[in-house]
Specification:
Length: 354
């Protein structure tokens, strides 16, 4: 079988100010042993050396197609733009800081060609840090029957990485892709999983870069820029924008469930049974906790903001009062840092004498 007879694969890479790692990612993808693929890069109006690096690779390899957005269109539109402007029988998103074994695409295509009922193929993953040191191995298992079970396996830790698997184009054309809602990656995977099976190659062929960034998205302007880019749309002020994304996510979740093949009564039961697995339980308290945590660890001394975050965090999940880090944030917000340091010193003295 010659190259033209092989199914075409489109790889979409969304980038924004990606100069730090993009060379490693591009080298990894262009070293794939699968011959019939295109690599589409959508640059979300970067302000660093990303454009020059991508143009350099485009000159060297005809498989690289570089496009630069006139304005920042936001991460969601950038991801979706890549698929809509691809032509392959199979499609995969590729992050600018991840890496892949040379056989990643060829093995995935082979599996999907054999398993006609599968919609996505992924592999086990190796977590790497910012300098490429290998850390934990993440093993995936997506076998499930029924709505509740399918949602449950998607909600497991690290399962969102499956969005970087190889996916049938026909399956992607049947779903809404990504949306500006909380947990949009999980929503995407749940809807896709309801169309068919996810198959896993039981080997590490994907390397996910996980490293601590300076800070997370914790202001309305940062969230707005992340989702919408230069689009000047209104979103509610803090903390209400969190519930705006949450409610939107919940509505999309209900729409996905209503499309499931069960009858109305079973749909209601499945929704109630799986409700605790979805963002109404998870997302808002995680965001409030992270918000308070990053103000605490990175020294952003807005005490009122910390107290507000802590307050809403307790409202959304009272169990966080048993988390040590959260208790430190709580004590500092209430009594100040000196009081917290005194308690830590007492704790250390007690520990030393035990």
């Amino acid at each position: 079988m010659n190259n033209k007879q092989l199914p075409k694969v489109s790889v979409g890479m969304p980038v924004y100010n990606s100069e730090r790692f993009i060379r490693q990612a591009l080298d990894s993808l262009l070293a794939q042993d699968y011959p019939n693929f295109e690599l589409i890069i959508s640059d979300n109006a970067s302000t660093d050396m990303t454009q020059q690096i991508c143009l350099e690779y485009g000159m060297r390899d005809k498989r690289v197609k570089y496009y630069r957005q006139k304005n920042n269109i936001g991460v969601v539109k950038n991801f979706n733009w890549l698929f809509k402007n691809s032509s392959g029988d199979y499609f995969m998103w590729a992050a600018y800081d991840d890496m892949w074994a040379p056989t990643y695409i060829s093995r995935s295509v082979d599996m999907l060609e054999k398993e006609k009922n599968a919609v996505l193929c992924f592999t086990h993953a190796q977590v790497i840090d910012n300098v490429g040191h290998k850390q934990q191995i993440v093993v995936f298992e997506f076998e499930a029957q029924g709505l509740r079970e399918k949602i449950k396996v998607i909600r497991n830790n690290w399962s969102c990485l499956a969005m970087y698997g190889l996916i049938r184009r026909k399956s992607l054309e049947k779903i809404r892709l990504f949306s500006d809602a909380s947990d949009c990656d999980y929503l995407f995977l749940i809807e896709l999983h309801l169309l068919g099976n996810f198959i896993i190659i039981p080997e590490v062929l994907f390397y996910y870069r996980h490293y601590i960034k300076k800070r997370e998205l914790i202001t309305v302007s940062e969230i707005k820029r992340f989702y919408y880019g230069a689009d000047k749309r209104w979103i509610p002020p803090y903390p209400f924008f969190l519930y705006y994304f949450l409610i939107k996510s919940l509505l999309l979740y209900l729409i996905i469930i209503l499309k499931w093949k069960d009858g109305p009564f079973k749909k209601i039961l499945s929704f109630l049974n799986s409700f605790y697995l979805y963002p109404f339980y998870a997302y808002n308290h995680i965001l409030y906790y992270q918000n308070a945590r990053f103000y605490y660890y990175y020294g952003l001394k807005d005490t009122a903001r910390v107290r507000q975050s802590v307050f809403f965090c307790i409202l959304s999940n009272p169990l966080y009062i048993f988390n040590y880090d959260f208790c430190c944030i709580l004590l500092e917000a209430i009594a100040g840092k000196k009081f917290l340091n005194s308690l830590k010193a007492i704790k250390q003295n007690v520990t030393n004498h035990l």
